[in-house]
Amino acid sequence: MSTSSRKTAVITGASSGIGAVYADRFAQRGYDLVLVARRAERLQSLATTIATTHGVRVTPLVADLATDEGQASVAEVLATNPAVSVLVNNAGIARLAPIAGGALQDSIAQIALNITALTRLAHAALPGMKARNEGLIINVSSALALHSLPISAVYSGTKAFVLSFSRGLQQELLGTAVTVQVVLPAATATEVWDQSGVPLATLNPDTVMSTDAMVDAALSALDKGESMTLPAVADVAVIERFEAARAELFSSTNTGKVAPRLLPA
């Protein structure tokens, strides 16, 4: 797909919002692009704008990543194009409602796109990246990976998967030049809210970050070597304490014994 000597970044969910900003920023950094989304007209318009603005090769790839066919078409590019050195797994949906009152299909759709597609694309990209000993995968999770609301059981669960999956990949890739960054945005002004059940207009504007600010912060963190990035968290010590407590809690499970507090009286 790319005949230039530049490296290529594949960005999913690229027709608007976070994905469109990532596309612009990687083009600024000199990457050719493969932009993946469902909406052909918007995708082509963005591709034309970025190619004209930054002088890079931009290939629109229309695919519905909630489907097997769509996942397969993108996976083929990742597995067969040796120029691909970046994958931004950004495509995702939110359906925010209590399980008891929500539609099963909404839950299944979130799992298909937020988990299955992301995992399949990583599977496709990693062998080539490891063979070339070069590559970057950015997985877009959510601050709700760390916390669940009464309306976010499935969404939080899918994003928690993205966080744990990314941590596992980071450990797997130690000693290689392949990097995985997981990004956990809080509320961000994107179109994901339109079909979520919680309109963006109902949120406190002071708690909502712009897409440009979010992506620029995440890329700044990437350049600084952060593997897990919460763009809205000012005090890095909070993140460090969370990570330390998580490691301590896991370590405390490795005893092979029932905790005394749970033994019969």
Structural class: alpha/beta
Q: So how many helices?
A: 7
On the 0-100 scale, what is the average pLDDT?
95
State the helicity in percent bands. Answer: 40-55%
Strand residue percentage: 5-15%
Strand segment tally:
7
CATH H-level name... which superfamily?
A: NAD(P)-binding Rossmann-like Domain
Low-pLDDT residue spans: none
From the spread of the alpha carbons, the general shape counts as globular
Number of domains: 1
Describe this structure in words.
This protein is α/β, with parallel strands linked by helices and 265 residues long. The chain has one domain: NAD(P)-binding Rossmann-like Domain (Rossmann fold). The protein is 45% helix and 14% strand. It has helices at 17-28, 40-54, 68-80, 104-132, 153-172, 211-223, 236-251, and strands spanning 8-12, 32-37, 58-62, 84-89, 135-140, 178-183, 228-229. It has a 7-stranded parallel sheet with strand order 3-2-1-4-5-6-7, with helices on both faces. Strand 1 (8-12), helix 1 and strand 2 form a beta-alpha-beta unit. Helix 1 packs parallel to helix 2, helix 3 packs parallel to helix 4 (104-132) and helix 4 runs parallel beside helix 5. The longest helix is centred in the middle third of the chain and has 29 residues, at 104-132.
Keywords:
265 residues; alpha/beta; Rossmann fold; seven-stranded parallel sheet; 7 helices; 7 strands; globular
Topology:
Layout: E1 8-12, H1 17-28, E2 32-37, H2 40-54, E3 58-62, H3 68-80, E4 84-89, H4 104-132, E5 135-140, H5 153-172, E6 178-183, H6 211-223, E7 228-229, H7 236-251
Parallel strand pairs: 1-2, 1-4, 2-3, 4-5, 5-6, 6-7
